[in-house]
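hey m, so remember when u said the tokens were messed up on ur end? i reran from scratch. heres the input so u can diff it against urs
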Amino acid sequence: MQNIIEIKDFSAPELDIYARLTEVQLLNREYPEKGMFIAESPKVIERALAAGYEPVSVLVEDKHIEGEAKEVLEKCGDIPIFTASFDVLKELTGFPLTRGLLCAMKRKPLLSTEEICAGAQRIAVLEEVMNPTNIGAIIRSAAALGMDAVVLTPGCSNPLYRRAIRVSMGTVFQIPWTIAGENWHEELKKLGFKTAAMALCDDTLSIEDERLEKEEKIAIVLGTEGDGLAAKTIAECDYTVKIPMYHGVDSLNVAAASAVAFWELRRR
């Protein structure tokens, strides 16, 4: 039987996760085993459930309990289902709910770089990409365009931040990813990967160069918005590559550039 709880007290501590805790507080770096995240919309929540993430509670607009949210709620067990009308929920969360449904879920322990790269041939490495919108868009492109895994450096925005999940359309639950240590380049080298830095340098290969396609294992490395990759990172990579451009345009947003690169480097 569903545990439906009508919201009457906005100050109830059970609602903190939706209304008052920041993304950093949800991440809980001090006690990562207690970390949580918020998934929104039935499709995204379904993908999280299918990937084995454990739901903690749900916040849902009352009209969706027997509507769009019904199938998802049936898969969530007897967790608390907090509900109210749209106007009440808008006041609680500060903005409209996407498709009328939010779900608080437990984070899972991160896998190692070696574990997510087992059997992989094409991976993406993100260095200091701090915008969660870009993180979500890159992961969505990686999933759609044939990448096997995504490795993030510690300075990146977390893929389970709410906006990143939303922009990715839940593909953060479908493609393996992890946050690597500072020596990620050495780890990938030991795993047999050649690395290709996306950078605006004079001595670069076109992303279409057949030498890249012929590599059995390759990692495409993309840098932060604006500054791009660190000089040290570029120097350590096996290749430096760029996308040919026209009309005097010298660069693309990192998310757009990633989609072009993934398409070119996909397994054929």
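this time it looks ok to me. The chain has a mean pLDDT of 90. if urs says something different then somethings off w ur setup not the seq
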